[in-house]
Automatic annotation (TrEMBL):
It comes from Mycobacterium spongiae. It comes from the Bacteria. InterPro entries: ATL_DNA_repair, MethylDNA_cys_MeTrfase_DNA-bd, MethylDNA_cys_MeTrfase_DNAb, WH-like_DNA-bd_sf. Pfam families: DNA_binding_1 (PF01035). This is DNA methyltransferase.
Amino acid sequence: MAPVTDDQVERVRSLVAAIPPGRVATYGDIAAVAGLSSPRIVGWIMRTDSSDLPWHRVITASGRPARHLVTRQLELLRAEGILSVDGKVALRGVRHEFPPS
C-alpha cells in the first residue's frame, strides 16, 4: 500500500463523520469519493483513526460488518434502526449517497 497522507486521512474522517444516523456507506463508497485507489486504504484508516467517529456506519460492499466487530457493529446499527438478516445489512434503502465534491 502506498503511504497514506494526512490529507487522505482527514478526507476519510470527514466522510465517515458525514454519514447520518440510520445510514451506512461501504469502504468502497468512501474510497471512491475520497479519490483513493482502494477500499483497503479506508479500512486501514478506520482501524487506526476512527474511535471518535461513527465507525459502525461503514460496512463491506457485501453488507457485512468487519469480522472482528460483527456483534458490536450490528448492535449499534440496530440501535439506529438498521436491521440485518443473517448478519448482513441490505444496502438498498440505507446506503448513504455522498453529495458530489
